[in-house]
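Exercise 4. Each item below gives a protein and its sequence. For each, produce the structure-token representation.

Item: Regulatory protein YrvL (Paenibacillus alvei).
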Amino acid sequence: MKKIVPIVIVGILSLFILLGVAAFFLFFHIGIFEVLGIQYESWTSILLFIGLSFVADAVTKVLFIFMKTRYFLATGQHFKQYHDAIFRIFLDFIAVHLIDEWMTSVHFSIFSEIAFVLIIYLIDASLFRKKEQDRRS
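Answer:
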């Protein structure tokens, strides 16, 4: 009995943390959708869009790392910060545009696609810089 109680308590706490993080991401994305005027048909379409965007983000990061190491380091050129920003925004835009074209239940205008990609890039860049600053100090 002494082993079961801590396991149940840790399990319940981890479940609450997981649900809290999922709720944060869900409401964060829905808030951005409302501000940008993105139309969606159901909650399942939102969840599918978020899932596909995570997959597309992973693919774009792999492509980005491949291009950064394969081309720029092989040619001796330095991958400057603005090249990094332009390339990542371009890959993210392609990913969001392809998901928008593929999914008929989520409707983006071209301006909302651009704004969505820029917002996501700015959030990602600020989180990455914060982690990088924490490592240096």
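Check: Strands lie at 39-40, 106-107.
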